[in-house]
Design goal:
CATH architecture of one domain: 3-Layer(aba) Sandwich
Strand content: 5-15%
Bound molecules: pyridoxal-5'-phosphate
Distance between the termini: 40 Å
CATH topology of one domain: Rossmann fold
Structural class: alpha/beta
Helix content: 40-55%
Number of helices: 21
Length: about 500
């Protein structure tokens, strides 16, 4: 089967290749790229894939979404192997038991270079960018201008470091990450600024995260600048990020089966969510044939997704600052992809173009002053076939970190994002009318060392607890001793940023 990509908003047929979907990121009509068809896993995959390594599984899944004439088998294998060689666990994403409950399991996604789940995707995206650029440039003649990408991004923490570690030292790629001075945690700042590779640049910008994000938008909108420097993004709507995340749903399913030693089980996945990228990969896994009973959206007090699933109304609200900052969002950008499939199943009458038309109307309503839209009863019904949800408060987050530490034999320490997931599990286990063989896999999205303030708030009263000894890995402890590369930006305006970018680019050894 040949695989092409289309936009969630197009009301006419405009298909693009995998490469174009990855390099451009966003469709011209403002929509998100989705595969023209969701491929099915092979008929006997539950047997055939059961004993594959994470890397072999990733290859088999990605192969179904990328045509062989775009990336041949040997290259795709190499990309996958290289991307996951940087992980500290041989399983890449190990499944561990939370022994305070019989049927509760934690999928640890934080064993990559920056200790957060975004590495699973961004390690792959970095290698993919390099692969496409190298191939384009290999066919150029002496003296002909090379294809380059200048990635510009804003971060309030996790995405910046994961992007930096994904793109460091990649040929023909330069990276500029902006963050608000004094408003990211010291550890997160160290993670970003101690990468001194030639092609990596961190800008500490006097201002807020919104100022940084607005600068990024302005850089993108400056056509002349963009034409010269080929500005690119690696934000959460890039299709390659979703694709790379599908693997761990399959892998953890097989891990669970081995750990409980039975074929006879149901599984629900609980996913701490912000932009809906992580959980969306679970939706694709389910549609490919993986027997997932339910996906549960775990939100903090920024609970637009929970409100939507409860009411069918998607409405913006101001962002609150919570204990799980990587999930502090106003709207969930990837939700549009999931919604597209739900509309197509219902009001879209299985017609791609009619679905795109309905989606466009919803999205203009969302970006109008009204800031909301409501889907039909049929569409919300369809969404509820896939999703359950919960909203978790700061107090609950802290209590769960405490209780998990206290009630597990190995004194397990959760980070606040993972604690939002576990709190949601605890709300559902028992309350949902599950069968006795229903298991919960809760996704753990960050290492607790990255969020020392909340973890210490929860645990410092326990006798014998020490952050230094029990939480902080040696590798992160050492960051504070390494040389730093930062450029301070005093004035958050477009001209200042652009001239800083040009100056830094000229210093790179090509
Ligand atoms: C990005 C992030 C999330 C949210 O993931 P989405 O794909 O945006 O839903 C949750 N936890 C951590 C630690 C993250 O970095």
């Amino acid at each position: 089967m040949s695989q092409v990509y289309r936009s969630t908003r197009s009301a006419s047929v405009q298909e693009v290749s995998f490469e174009e979907a990855i390099i451009t990121g966003l469709a011209k009509d403002g929509g998100l790229f989705i595969p023209s068809q969701i491929p099915q896993a092979p008929k006997d995959f539950l047997k055939e894939w059961e004993n594959l390594s994470f890397q072999e599984l990733a290859f088999n899944i990605m192969r179904l979404y990328i045509n062989e004439n775009e990336i041949p088998d040997s290259d795709l294998r190499q990309l996958v192997t290289k991307s996951y060689s940087t992980f500290r666990s041989k399983d890449v994403t190990p499944l561990v038991k939370i022994d305070s409950k019989d049927n509760l399991h934690l999928l640890e996604l934080f064993h990559g270079p920056t200790y957060a789940f975004k590495d699973v995707a961004l390690q792959f995206v970095g290698n993919l960018f390099e692969f496409f650029l190298q191939r384009k440039n290999a066919s150029k003649k002496e003296g002909e201008e090379r294809d380059i990408i200048t990635v510009v991004g804003a971060t309030s923490g996790d995405t910046g470091s994961a992007a930096i570690y994904g793109l460091r030292n990649k040929k023909d790629v330069s990276v500029f990450i902006m963050y608000p001075t004094g408003r990211v945690s010291p550890l997160q700042e160290e993670q970003m600024t101690t990468v001194t590779d030639d092609n990596i640049h961190t800008f500490s910008v006097k201002g807020t995260f919104d100022d940084c994000q607005s600068l990024v938008k302005q850089v993108f909108a400056d056509e002349e600048f963009n034409n010269t420097y080929h500005i690119g993004a690696v934000n959460s709507i890039n299709w390659a990020r979703i694709l790379a995340q599908i693997t761990y749903y399959f892998y953890s399913y097989f891990q669970l089966k081995k750990q409980i030693g039975s074929e006879n089980f149901n599984v629900k996945y609980v996913v701490p969510s912000g932009n809906f990228g992580d959980i969306l990969a679970g939706f694709y896994a389910k549609e490919m044939g993986l027997p997932i009973e339910k996906l549960v959206v775990a939100t903090n007090e920024n609970n637009i997704l929970h409100r939507f699933i409860s009411t069918g109304k998607y409405d913006k609200a101001p962002v609150k600052v919570t204990h799980s900052p990587a999930m502090d969002i106003c709207v969930s950008s990837n939700f549009e992809r999931f919604l597209w499939y739900m509309i197509r199943k219902t009001d879209g009458s299985n017609d791609d173009l009619k679905t795109g038309e309905i989606m466009s109307t919803f999205m203009s309503s969302l970006s109008s002053p009204k800031g909301e839209f409501t889907v039909s009863a049929e569409t919300i019904q369809a969404a509820r076939q896939f999703l359950d949800s919960a909203s978790v408060s700061n107090e609950e987050t802290v209590s769960t970190i405490k209780e998990t530490y206290d009630n597990t034999t190995n004194k397990y320490i959760l980070d606040p994002h993972s604690a939002v997931g576990i709190t949601t599990c605890l709300k559902y286990i028992g309350a949902a009318n599950d069968s006795p063989n229903t298991h919960y896999i809760s996704l753990s999205t960050a290492h607790p060392a990255k969020f020392s303030e909340v973890v210490n708030l929860a645990l410092s009263d326990f006798e014998g607890y020490s952050f230094e000894k029990d939480v902080l890995p040696e590798e992160l402890r050492q960051l504070s001793t390494l040389p730093k590369k930062i450029r301070l930006i005093e004035h958050a305006d477009l001209k200042t940023i652009e001239s800083a970018i040009v100056e830094e680019l000229s210093k790179e050894k090509k």
